[in-house]
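Researcher: I'm preparing a figure for a lab meeting and need a structural model of a single chain. I don't have an experimental structure, so a prediction will have to do for now. The sequence is pasted below. Please return the structure as tokens so I can convert it later.
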Amino acid sequence: MELNVAKTILLAGGVLVVPVLAFVTSFLFWPGALLKAYNWYWRRRLGLVVRYSHRGNYRFCYSSRGAPGGTTPSLLLLHGFSATKDMWLPVVKFLPRNQHVVCVDMPGHEGTSRTGPEDYSIRGQVERIHQFVQSIGLDKRPFHLVGTSMGGNVAGVYAATYPTHLSSVTLVCPAGLVYPTDSEFISRLRELEKGEKDESIPLVPTTIQELEDMLRLCCYTPPKLPRQVLSGLLANRIPNNDFYKEVFMEIVGEKSRHSLQENMHLITVPLQVIWGKEDQVLDVSGAAVLQGALPHCQVTVLDSCGHSVALERPRKAAKLITDFLSEQAVSDGNMKKVS
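Model: Understood. Here is the structure written out token by token.
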């Protein structure tokens, strides 16, 4: 009897030990793959499904949940430079479960086709995103567009170019403005342009130290990640660094750097602006620029928050967006009553 019990315990222990060993081995030797698996698991928990759409030979990769046609407009979320659709997972977690939400990989990023510089300028990205909107039928009724950083620049120019397709737009710490106050990142960028320092692009890390520096730049309170997690993040980024550099040179080039500034006067749909007060990448003074040009826009500045609003304040960001949508619905209802 005791022998059988011992065998049972050993067998049960073996069953537990094998997956634990597999997890530890993966964490130590393939941390990048493990991080991707974690994102897959998180998407699955949130009910997001990865899908693909095409425009000719061009492929778009996106994740979505729900279906259009509900009481609120569909949400299309545009991520920032060198990120992916998965950067929105913390925000999606706090959105209503019945909200139709679409997170797309920006041109060349993750699962979306990688072509050439013509698609990486802000105008080029706007046109590709419009193709994506058409490819999944999102243009059949006005939708709400959200963009952060580079994606905020794209979202703003999209709103200026295709206003009839939108119900409203949210810009989170958007790029593309002339900022009254230089951020730490802009100051370092000016040094790079002058050639005064021989250093890498701050947002394209090649070492763990540079990755930690980037996290400190992007987050007011950077996450304290184990070295293996940092190694995984870096392992997933390094194969794409040449692409990231190509995109970076396009979006900071003469044609794209101030795209939002040059087009913001054409934005006619209701506009919401969310900014981290401690943003070291794109200074919060940009919020005043948008409000000065578009006095009716709604501006929220988040205390103790940096550039990565979706990571640092996901619950607050989700609430601000859903509250804004509700306000627009009430406003639209009142206008229909008057007419």
